[in-house]
Amino acid sequence: MKTVFTMKKIIAINALLSTLLFCCLANAQGVSDLEMTCRFLISKDLGYASISPSGQFQGKLISKNDERVTKLESTIISLSKKFILEKTINGKKVPRYDSKADMIVALVTGAQQELNRYGVKEASFNLFNGMDQLPTKNSSSKISRYMSVYSLLRLKGVSHQKTINQMKSSLLETSLLH
Hints:
Strand 1 (about 50) and strand 2 (about 55-60) form a beta hairpin. The protein has helices at about 5-25, 35-45, 65-80, 100-115, 125-135, 145-155, 160-175, and strands at about 50, 55-60, 90, 90-95. It contains 7 helices and 4 strands. The chain has one domain. By secondary structure, it is mainly alpha-helical. About 60% of the residues lie in helices and about 5% in strands. The longest helix has 19 residues, at about 5-25. Strands 1-2 form a two-stranded antiparallel sheet. The chain starts with 6 loop residues before the first helix and ends with a helix.
């Protein structure tokens, strides 16, 4: 069976996931959207929380004081500095996001969802940290390109760490950092 993997699918899944997430968690007061997103992503990875097909939040969130929340927030902020805000991907208009952090979360979690559909499981925490390990050029790199290469390698059966290592090596050797 041939795998069809497009950024259009990632964006569509992502927009839905982001909308559901913030609709379900919007009533949280005194908590930043990024903190709430990180708490949800880590809780989901651990099996503590999910969003039902009908859009209902289920489960519980890990504490905002958990060090993984702070680490993931820092990683997403770092990625926001490394990558540009994309307006189009493969000629298709990207939904408007309030910030680069929102776009990065949407694209990475969208790719994660698509990979899950094909049996490739990877924790959100690992995906964000993996992307943060990769070199970029002058904050003009596109995370969608990085996630596309990552996804293609993973769909070919390459492990997470080997994929990150191969990408890092290729980027450094070829200087194609855009």
